[in-house]
Amino acid sequence: DAGVTQSPTHLIKTRGQQVTLRCSPKSGHDTVSWYQQALGQGPQFIFQYYEEEERQRGNFPDRFSGHQFPNYSSELNVNALLLGDSALYLCASSRDRVETQYFGPGTRLLVL
Amino acid sequence: GEDVEQSLFLSVREGDSSVINCTYTDSSSTYLYWYKQEPGAGLQLLTYIFSNMDMKQDQRLTVLLNKKDKHLSLRIADTQTGDSAIYFCAESPLTTGANNLFFGTGTRLTVIP
Questions:
Q1: What is the pLDDT of residues A30-55, one digit of tens each?
Q2: B28 in Cβ contact with B93 (< 8 Å)
Q3: More confident residue, B52 or B64
Q4: Which of chain A's residues have a Cβ under 8 Å away from the Cβ of B102?
Q5: Of A59, B41, B57, B71, which has fewest CB within 10 angstroms of its CB?
Q6: pLDDT at B2
């Protein structure tokens, strides 16, 4: 049973560029959440997707957007990258809103 | 708003018990979680407790919940060097209408051989 997978594992971008990160949820899961973990901090909730709609959003600007596909996989897009967007981006999946979330290995983004 | 606090560091000797503490603010939280993060890795779910429980035991792990004081602890018995990692406490408040998590800053556990 495959767990949550994310791609790519590492990414280097420059300020002002755009980036797309990808996530495939654990088998049987239909809800995907994205978190940003800055160095030395706990993860912070970005948003959650369910039934291809953004259901909840944390305190992140509109530069952060996402998408969920019919197969439940998801993308996180960040536009106009800032140095402060450098972080580990974690995807988590669950079965709808009441279930425990399981995390992927993350994508480490470095913005220069 | 939600605020989860943890002490930053804990050192224990191999074979001793470790106790990691956490305080949270949202009394509506239905579930409280402990996650483990090893260097360069994602988060591994260790255990969780439903808010109407006081204690949960799972092999070497014991979770204690004091709902009145909004205090959660994780006890690791017979701590091993492989337990060295960062441990995050997280709450899932009912008020958000979803199961998104609010994390503390993590406690770095160092196990001394």
A1: 999 999 999 999 999 999 999 999 98
A2: yes
A3: B64
A4: 45
A5: A59
A6: 65
Give the pLDDT of residue A68: 97
Spatial contact of A105 and A3, defined as CB atoms under 8 Å apart: no
C-alpha span between B101 and A84 (Å, rounded): 22
What is the distance between the alpha carbons of residues A45 and A112, in angstroms, rounded to a whole number? 24
3-state SS assignment for residue A12: strand
Residue A106 has pLDDT above 80, yes or no: yes
Place of tokens 């990258």: A81
Residue A103 has pLDDT above 70, yes or no: yes
pLDDT of residue B95: 60
What residues does B37 pair with on adjacent strands?
B43, B86
pLDDT over 70, % of chain B: 93
Give contacts of A 19-58 with B, CB under 8 A. Answer: 31, 33, 35, 40-45, 48, 55-56, 58
On the question of pLDDT at A92 being above 80, the answer is yes
Question: Strands across the sheet with B4-6, in order?
Answer: B4-6, B18-24, B71-76, B61-66, B55-58
Secondary structure of chain B in HEC code, one letter for each residue: CCCEEECCEEEEECCCCEEEEEEECCCCEEEEEEEEECCCCCEEEEEEEECCCCEEEECCEEEEEECCCCEEEEEECCCCHHHCEEEEEEEEEHHHCCCCCEECCCEEEEEEC
> What is the rounded CA–CA span in Å between residue A33 and residue B60?
29
Give the integer Cα–Cα distance in Å for A57 and A49: 9
